[in-house]
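Listing 4. Sequential folding, example run.
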Amino acid sequence: MKRDQRQYMREWYRRKRLDPAWVEKERIRGRNKMRYRRANDPAFAAQERVGKSQRMKNWRAANLERIQQKDRERSVQQNAARNTRRAANPEKIRAIDRQRYQDNPEPMLTRNRARRARLANALCTLTVEQWEAILELADRQCIYCGASVDITMDHLIPLARGGSHTADNVAPACRSCNSSKGIKTVVEFMEEAS
């Protein structure tokens, strides 16, 4: 008889699971039950938080390669979607990029300078805040001629000659002086200028 009762309950449950309204009602009932327990049993709530955190850490450690693979796949998909949008609307994207640069050029300039330094295998630790402090210290004037227009970042020891992209190796210079200096050191440039 118990076997028949178990068989009946299995069939009943199987039929009920096909009814979406019943499934939703059971889901809500289970969720409310857990909410009640979390609210009225602090020990359970604390244990659940710690337990969930630890379970997540364990799962991440056990599935690290899988997570990294998913991240790589997602990155490839996002890059492909971005490249498709860029290819479909090149003029629009170019206009947006140009406007973004005109509104705030410093992040892009900083990124490009850091990239140049990395390509030259130079030490690269200069931050935007450090560069702004250097500009303020020099009153936003060229250290060679004193001009205050079209100020650029000059590497005292050029990157091409083993200089670093750090606060102690950069100084403000006008575009004209910076272009004239080229890959000379400060001493060479000053000797040539006099």
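-- end of first protein; second protein begins --
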Amino acid sequence: MLACLFPKCDCKRQCYRGGYMRTPSAPQAEPPVSTLEQWNGALCPYCAKVMHTEHMHMKPSRDHIVPRGRGGPNTSANLTIACTRCNHNKGDKTLLEWQFELALKNDPRMAHVAAFLQAHEAKQTATAFEKMLALENA
């Protein structure tokens, strides 16, 4: 629903007196904090350091393996838990782009990213093969 920017105006559409703004929609349910806190003490797949909630840069965070801005889906198959430092450093890059960037900087995380990328691609291939078999058997 649209609402006018002017408090005394009662129009419900675009107001000719100065514009409009969207009223906030119902808040979407945020995933519980406990889902990230359960990763406290786990290893980051990109740097292999222990993630913990006490340190700002090592807090567990959700990372889209294929970035949403690059067409990656918001599904569990495209999500991993990484430390905040690696997640922010990766940004809107694919794993392959980030791996090349880390290699140019001679960053030790490059080996971990390469191993994660290889495992992720193997998992995707296995999933695609299982779907193909299911279609053939149907």
